[in-house]
């Protein structure tokens, strides 16, 4: 259970003194200690939030969803390109070779099959893969900061945000 995220999410909608989950598996032990300044509406909102809380380790969920997206591949110029760590390293090496020997083509196996890539296309692929990885990290950062701030509290929010990541043009 990510008690810090739960506390932050509740504190974002209602002034509180603290949150307690004595037994994370027994919701009857969960309670919110409200600040005396909390209004009735704020208390209702906070109570609904704790009732809907899934107990998912949201930090781990975000990290795992990020890795799956980042490493899951991307389509560039009709080629499906692998983007796992090994493939990114091979792409970096192929790009360096294409720059050192720009008059030679690179035999490259995309996820969609074998292709011979010229220097300019290899540069396009390498830059696009870098942009894809960066877009994934930017979404990861925004989600993680939202989790800490209490504005990202559900796996559905995480899934929707990562589903919206696209290759920059």
Number of helices: 6
Q: Report the count of strand segments.
A: 6
Low-confidence regions: none
Q: What fraction, in percent, of the residue positions are helical?
A: 40-55%
Number of domains: 2
Amino- and carboxy-terminal Cα gap: 39 Å
Mind telling me the C-alpha Rg? 23 Å
As a percent range, the share of strand residues is 15-25%
Strand order of the largest sheet: 1-2
Shape estimate: rod-shaped
Mean pLDDT: 92
Order of helices and strands: HEEHHEEHEEHH
Biggest beta-sheet profile: 2 strands, antiparallel
Helix-and-strand structural type: alpha+beta
Characterization of the model:
- The protein has helices spanning 3-11, 40-52, 58-71, 85-100, 119-149, 155-163, and strands at residues 16-21, 30-34, 74-76, 79-81, 106-110, 113-117.
- Helix 1 (3-11) runs antiparallel to helix 2 and helix 3 packs antiparallel against helix 5 (119-149).
- It is built from six helices and six strands, in the order H-E-E-H-H-E-E-H-E-E-H-H.
- The strands form three sheets. The chain has a two-stranded antiparallel ribbon. A two-stranded antiparallel sheet has the order 3-4.
- The chain is α+β, with helices and mostly antiparallel strands and 169 residues long.
- The two termini are 39 Å apart.
């Amino acid at each position: 259970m990510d008690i810090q995220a739960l506390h932050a999410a509740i504190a974002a909608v209602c002034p509180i003194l603290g949150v307690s989950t004595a037994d994370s598996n027994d919701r009857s032990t969960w309670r919110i200690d409200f600040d005396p300044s909390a209004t009735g509406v704020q208390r209702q909102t906070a109570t609904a939030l704790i009732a809907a809380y899934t107990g998912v380790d949201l930090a781990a969920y975000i990290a795992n969803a990020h890795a799956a997206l980042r490493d899951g591949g991307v389509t560039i110029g009709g080629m499906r390109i692998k983007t796992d760590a090994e493939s990114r390293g091979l792409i970096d090496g192929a790009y360096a070779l294409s720059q050192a020997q720009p008059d030679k083509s690179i035999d490259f196996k995309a996820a969609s099959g074998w292709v011979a890539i010229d220097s300019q296309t290899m540069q396009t692929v390498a830059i696009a893969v870098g942009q894809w990885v960066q877009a994934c990290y930017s979404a990861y950062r925004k989600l993680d900061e939202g989790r800490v701030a209490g504005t990202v509290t559900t796996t559905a929010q995480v899934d929707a945000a990562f589903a919206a990541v696209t290759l920059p043009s």
